[in-house]
Structure formats: structure tokens, C-alpha cells
Write a structure and sequence with these properties.
The structure holds 2 protein chains of 2 kinds. Chain A is α+β, with helices and mostly antiparallel strands. Chain A is 15% helix and 34% strand. Chain A contains 1 helix and 7 strands; from the N terminus they run αβββββββ. In chain A, strands 2, 3, 5, 6 and 7 form a 5-stranded antiparallel beta sheet that branches. Chain A has a two-stranded antiparallel sheet with strand order 1-4. In chain A, a hairpin with a 5-residue loop joins strand 2 and strand 3. Chain A starts with a helix and ends with a strand. The N terminus of chain A is likely disordered. Chain B is an alpha+beta fold. Chain B has 3 domains: 70 residues, Alpha-Beta Plaits (2-Layer Sandwich), CATH 3.30.70; 308 residues, Peptidase S8/S53 domain (Rossmann fold, 3-Layer(aba) Sandwich); 150 residues, Sandwich (Jelly Rolls). In chain B, strand 17 and strand 18 form a beta hairpin. In chain B, helix 4 packs parallel to helix 7, helix 5 packs parallel to helix 6 and helix 7 crosses helix 8. The radius of gyration of chain B is 29 Å and the shape is elongated. Classes of the chains: A alpha+beta, B alpha+beta. Chains A and B meet through strand 1, strand 5, strand 6 and strand 7 of A and strand 1, helix 2, helix 9 and strand 30 of B. Strand 1 of chain A pairs antiparallel with strand 30 of chain B.
Chain lengths: 125, 600
């Protein structure tokens, strides 16, 4: 258990250098009373069926309110990973995921992005 | 069951000259597939043009700051071909460079081919695929000229995929001439069904087309492309399953159609095209067959109908278009200017999208001829007479019994006959067509017979039909397969046979014709109808499934509907207000589903 907590703090410390510090900006999580703690949050979603999402140039963009967009690009294998983790401070967060591919509607490579998934809300204690 | 088929059809094989500037041998593949298989640029690379004042050190630093490396200088100062980092996309890298003050512009390292335009001889007539505003010389629907750009936007998609043969597309129709030169290479078959499908009209393994309609539909979906022959389909390579449910007259039954659907589902089709339709009551068995296709993840694409009617009015539903299964896509027809075709049905809850459906050139089952007759010569008549009557302000020649039809009554105890021999030799199919208004008392009969030898068919002939009752005071069409009568002396006749009691108005016959078909492997035809719009979309469905092998019917239907482009003529006429757009549908990405989060 102690190692797990340390691991989480370590993750947050790493994340703080990028984005954890403010947690602010548009769509910031709601502030709750009491001590602020950090928790690892794992997101999962169903794999998209488009071949372009599951090959080089494809992937997913995960949006968490108040956080930078998380890019989950295709790396290798048959499908792009459909999970990612983030460390979040205490608060309520809205989350969505979009899929993308390199091909665009004009036959070029400026890329296409899906509509957002149905949003979910989580409360980080 | 009424076949959705425009009768505006004339064969004119307008040859189109070579389309490519580059020298190619006939039938040679004009280009190869893109390196990445799905995009027209080199993956993992971008080209960067730096501003003139940018120093060499600054250029190097700019690239390094992105985590990239310079592959080459493109033989000019300030230019660089850059290798991007692992996990980065070309689009992201371009965005980063475009925001860099040292960069004048950045772009993908595009891959070029000879243009993705097939060399098929009649490609220039296929406005659905490339509308240049050309005149479709064989087109009888007006206008037969159009607006450049009003097309399916398919040529860009052909840079990405032309081979849909991994997806079996069933054509539930009048059969397919599987020997036709543009189709023979793209027919499905199996160990059991070596003739490419099944025939539910005659209940055998040979689904040869004895009408032409099914062959035309099949060609729109998957005529071999870029083979320097005839037309091309949406898919240049395809796997067409022929399932014959409509007879030589273009008619089928619930039994033949649902058997055909079930055959397609059982034998692996993932797309079914049904360019057929009919009004009337809800058909539960038909609906259940489509629901079974849905259960088996099969997309069913259907025609909206050709009555210029609102399918949602409540009085004129058209099935299968008006069925509500989620795997069903119902298609309206657009003309060469992307106006709704004058004949096309529509409906804001039943009709989903529009697609080109006028003056569509495609394969045909053979050479057809039409023998018309105005009853003026060659008829042997007793009791019948000829006359002229006005119909919708046009004077038509009629065959009448009694002579003052419809203002008099026929005689009791009559055996009135009219017949004439026709030379139908050299054909494989013959169909008798005429229109009639009739009112015949229930204990009398209006008979139609033939005999293949010269003489009176009512002495020793074969019944085509025996009717009584009334057509309700209106003129209605009649159609019969006359193929067993094919000979040099096929005698066709009408008889009014009455008893000694009760009389009625009698019979008036007009627009007599015999349509013949001599099967061959080189015929094409240009016709109009929602029957032609539907297979444009079925071909797209096959292409989407071939490009995205994991696609479900839901994904396919979403991509077709949401990937379409808005067309003013379809607004308020369809569920989407959109015309299909192949490239846009191919690039469409469904929103992810099933998002969940776990807090640790």
C-alpha cells in the first residue's frame, strides 16, 4: 500500500511539472472542501472500428476538464490502445474521448477527428 | 410486387476516348496503391520551408526542438525533408511547424500517381462518379446535362481503395448476367453455388438475368474498373452474389424476395441491395427477413420508389423503404444537377439519403428490342374491333370489345377472339405488355393465351391469364412472360368469353408491345430510377466494409448518413438532407463508445 501511494505521488509530481499545479483554466474541476489529495484515474473505452484509427497516424484524444488533452496514438499491433491513466486532484471531472485518423474528407492528410464520446463525470475523493 | 424500374431506357454505347495523358497499354493498371495504403503522403515525414532570414543553426534547432531530424535538403537552401518522431502524427507535426516563426510553410510529403481515373471506355458518361457537366448522350431523362461537381466525390476515394472483393454484396433482383464482360470477374461463387447465386423464381441454381435490371444494378455496384471495357462500378473489384427474386417481367413475391434475403444472409453477404419496392400493407414476413439480416450484421440498401410520392404520407408507404430496421438505408434519386429526380419518392422519416439516379449507364443482360403494335394490321378478329380513345389528352389506338367500350355492354353467349402471330426468334426472353381497362362480370372471362405455332391460340394454346372483375374504371398495366412462345410464329390473343346471363362494359386494350431480350455479354444500357441510386449506396457500403473490416452495420450506416454532404434538394425530403459522398464517408470516424473511468 505504501509503495502504491508513493507511486501515485510520484506520478503526480511528474504531472505537476506539466499541468497539475493549477488544475485551472476553462472547465476546471469543481473545488471541494477538505484536504486535496491525488488519485490515479484509469480511463477505458471501446476500440473504434475504423482502420485509420488503428494504424499509423490514428489514435484517440482524451479530454479531461481542466487538463491538457491526452493523446493516445497508435503505436503497434492490430489496434490502438484504448486505455490511459491520469493523476487527478480532488474534484469532479468531465471526460470524453475522440478518435482520429490521418485521412481527411478531401482525400488529403490533414486528418479527421470524430465527435466526442458521450461524456462521463467522475468524482475524485 | 412492383419493380422499381424506369422505362426510360435506350441503349447507346457512346465510346469515350482515352482519358489519360500518360501512355498506357490497354488494360494496364494506371497506378499503384499509396505506400501507406490509406493516405496520399509518406508516413512519418513532412517537408518544411524556412523563412529566408532563418539561419542554418536556427533551422537545425527548430527541427531538433520538435524531436525530429532532417533527412534531406531538397537541393535548395531553406528546404528540408524531415523525419518526425515516433508517436507523432504528420498532422500534429505540421501544426507545430506552422506555428513556428522561422517556418514559412510546412506540408506533407505527398505521393503522386497517374490520376485515379479508370480507363473504362464509357467512363466519361458516368456522371455519378465524375460530373463535369457532360451530356449523357444515351440519357433519356431530362436534363441530361448537369453541374460539374455534383457527383459522389469518388475519384479521391479510388486513390485509397478500389477493391471491395472481401465483402460479398447480394443483388436481390431479376438475376445477374454473370457472363457479362464487365461483371464476370467480379461475381461471387461457392462450392455449392458455382453459378454465383440462386434463382428463387425457378428454384434452381442458375440466377441468370432474364430482364436486365439486376445486371444493371450489379454493374453500378461492381463492374470491373480500369479494365478498358465498358463502365466501372463503385467498386472496381467486387464479389457480387446474384439472387434472382424477380421474374422476366420484373415482378416477385414475398416468398421469392424473403427467400433471396435469407439466402444472402446464410451465404455470407454483408451488404444486400434491393432496388425493388411496392406499396400496400405492411408485410410482416418481409420485415422479419430484414430483421434477420440485421441480427446477422448485414446492411440492406433499398430504393425509395419511383412514384414522386411522399412515403411518409400514410397513404403511400413503399416497402421495403418504409421498414424501420436500423440496418436499412433507403435511397432517393438525384439528377445531374443534384435536384431530386422528378420520379423519386421521398420521406423525412423513411428515406435516408440521395444518390445519382438519372441517366445511369451500366451493364445490361443482352440486346433488347421492343415490338409495338397498334392493332391495325395482321390481327384476326371476331367480335373485337379497333378504335381510338383519348387518354390524358392523347389519342391512342385501342382493341375494343364491345366497339363502343366503355359506353356500351358486351353480348351474352359471346366467344370473341383477336390474335396475331409475331416473329420472336433469336431471343432468349419475351415479355408481353399492354394496358387495359376492363369490366367483366364474374361469370364471364377475359382470357389471354398464346401458341407457338401460327393459328388461333384459343383452339390449342396456353393460358397466360384468365380474368374477370373490374379495373375500377382506370387503365392498368399487364405484363406476362411470353418466353415459352419464342418462335417465328408466336400467336398471341385475347378472348372475351361470356355466358347467357349478365353483361358489363367489356375490355379496352392499348399500348400493346412485346419486349425481347437476346442474352449477350457485351450490352450496356442507360436508365433512370431510384433502382439506380440504391446500388450507388450499396457499393459505398461494400467499400466502407472493405476499408474497415471491423465495421458493423451500425458503423456503415452511420458513415453513409453522417459522411454525406448536404444537398438543398434533399432538405425536408429525407432523414439526413444529404447526398452520399464517398470520400467523406471513407474518412468519417464514429465517436468512441463505452468510456469509463476507475479511480484508484
Amino acid at each position: 500500500m505504501r509503495r502504491a501511494i508513493a507511486g501515485m505521488l510520484g506520478s503526480c509530481a511528474l504531472l505537476l511539472a506539466v499541468s497539475c499545479g493549477g488544475g485551472g483554466g476553462g472547465g476546471s474541476p469543481s473545488v471541494q472542501q477538505g484536504p486535496v489529495t491525488s488519485h490515479a484515474v484509469t480511463l477505458n473505452w471501446a476500440s473504434n472500428h475504423e482502420s485509420g484509427v488503428n494504424k499509423a497516424g490514428g489514435g484517440y484524444k482524451v479530454s479531461v476538464s481542466g487538463q491538457p488533452t491526452i493523446d493516445v496514438p497508435y503505436v503497434s499491433g492490430l489496434t490502438t490502445t484504448t486505455t490511459t491513466s491520469i493523476v487527478l486532484n480532488t474534484g469532479s471531472y468531465s471526460m470524453t474521448v475522440r478518435a482520429y485518423a490521418a485521412l481527411d474528407a478531401q482525400g488529403g492528410v490533414t486528418g479527421s477527428l470524430s465527435a466526442a464520446s458521450t461524456p462521463i463525470t467522475i468524482n475524485v475523493p | 410486387m412492383k419493380n422499381i424500374l424506369s422505362l426510360r431506357s435506350i441503349i447507346i454505347a457512346a465510346l469515350f476516348g482515352a482519358l489519360l495523358a500518360a501512355p498506357l497499354s490497354a488494360g494496364a493498371a494506371p497506378f499503384s496503391s499509396p505506400v501507406s495504403g490509406d493516405a496520399n503522403h509518406v508516413p512519418g515525414e513532412v517537408l518544411v520551408k524556412f523563412k529566408p532570414a532563418t539561419s542554418a543553426n536556427a533551422r537545425t534547432a527548430t527541427v531538433a526542438n520538435q524531436g525530429h531530424s532532417v533527412l534531406a535538403g531538397l537541393d535548395r537552401t531553406g528546404w528540408a525533408r524531415v523525419k518526425i518522431g515516433a508517436g507523432q502524427t504528420v498532422a500534429e507535426s505540421l501544426a507545430a511547424y506552422r506555428n513556428d516563426p522561422n517556418v514559412e510553410y510546412a506540408q506533407p510529403n505527398y505521393i503522386y500517381h497517374i490520376a485515379a481515373v479508370p480507363v473504362d471506355t464509357q467512363y466519361g458518361q458516368l456522371w455519378a462518379f465524375k460530373n463535369t457537366g457532360q451530356t449523357v448522350t444515351s440519357g433519356t431523362y431530362l436534363p441530361n446535362t448537369g453541374t460539374a461537381g455534383d457527383d459522389m466525390n469518388i475519384e479521391k476515394a479510388w486513390d485509397i481503395i478500389t477493391d471491395c472483393s472481401s465483402v460479398v454484396v447480394a443483388v436481390v433482383d431479376s438475376g445477374v448476367n454473370y457472363n457479362q464482360e464487365d461483371l464476370s470477374a467480379n461475381m461471387w461463387s461457392s462450392v455449392t453455388y458455382t453459378l454465383h447465386g440462386y434463382n428463387y423464381v425457378d428454384n434452381n441454381n442458375d440466377p441468370m438475368d432474364r430482364h436486365g435490371h439486376g445486371t444493371h444494378v450489379a454493374g453500378i455496384i461492381g463492374a470491373a474498373g480500369n479494365n478498358a471495357t465498358g463502365s466501372t462500378g463503385v467498386c472496381w473489384k467486387a464479389s457480387i452474389m446474384a439472387v434472382r427474386a424477380l421474374d422476366a417481367t420484373g415482378s416477385g413475391t414475398t416468398a421469392s424476395i424473403i427467400s433471396a434475403i435469407n439466402f444472402a444472409v446464410t451465404n455470407g453477404a454483408k451488404v444486400i441491395n434491393m432496388s425493388i419496392g411496392g406499396g400496400g400493407a405492411f408485410d410482416q414476413a418481409y420485415s422479419d427477413a430484414i430483421a434477420n439480416a440485421q441480427t446477422n450484421d448485414v446492411v440492406v440498401v433499398v430504393a425509395a420508389g419511383n412514384s414522386n410520392a411522399n412515403n411518409d404520407s400514410g397513404t403511400t408507404p413503399t416497402y421495403p423503404c418504409n421498414f424501420s430496421q436500423a440496418n436499412l438505408v433507403c435511397v432517393a434519386a438525384l439528377d445531374q444537377n443534384y435536384a431530386l429526380a422528378s420520379f423519386s419518392n421521398y420521406g423525412t422519416t423513411s428515406v435516408d439519403v440521395g444518390a445519382p439516379g438519372t441517366n445511369i449507364l451500366s451493364a445490361w443482360a443482352g440486346s433488347k428490342t421492343v415490338i409495338t403494335d397498334d392493332f391495325s394490321t395482321g390481327w384476326t378478329m371476331t367480335g373485337w374491333s379497333t378504335g381510338s380513345l383519348w387518354v390524358n389528352s392523347v389519342l391512342y389506338p385501342f382493341l375494343l370489345d364491345p366497339s363502343n367500350f366503355p359506353n356500351g355492354t358486351y353480348s351474352n353467349n359471346a366467344d370473341d377472339r383477336a390474335y396475331k402471330p409475331f416473329n420472336l426468334s433469336g431471343n432468349d426472353v419475351a415479355v408481353l405488355n399492354f394496358y387495359a381497362q376492363a369490366a367483366v362480370f364474374a361469370d364471364d372471362s377475359f382470357n389471354i393465351k398464346y401458341r407457338s405455332t401460327v393459328g388461333d391460340p384459343f383452339s390449342s394454346g396456353v393460358f397466360l391469364d384468365s380474368l374477370n372483375g373490374t379495373t375500377g374504371g382506370v387503365i392498368v398495366p399487364f405484363s406476362y412472360d411470353l418466353s415459352p412462345c419464342i418462335s417465328t410464329t408466336c400467336s398471341v390473343g385475347f378472348q372475351l368469353l361470356t355466358n347467357g346471363s349478365n353483361v358489363d362494359q367489356g375490355v379496352g386494350i392499348l399500348a400493346f408491345s412485346i419486349n425481347t431480350l437476346a442474352l449477350n455479354n457485351t450490352s450496356y444500357n442507360t436508365i433512370s430510377g431510384t433502382s439506380m441510386a440504391s446500388p450507388e449506396v450499396a457499393g459505398l457500403a461494400a467499400m466502407l466494409r472493405a476499408y474497415n473490416p471491423q465495421y458493423t452495420y451500425t458503423d456503415v450506416v452511420n458513415s453513409i448518413k453522417k459522411g454525406g454532404r448536404s444537398a438543398a434538394s434533399l432538405s425536408g425530403k429525407t432523414t439526413t438532407g444529404k447526398a452520399v459522398d464517398v470520400m467523406s464517408s471513407l474518412a468519417y470516424i464514429n465517436a468512441p463508445t463505452g468510456l469509463s473511468a476507475t479511480v484508484h
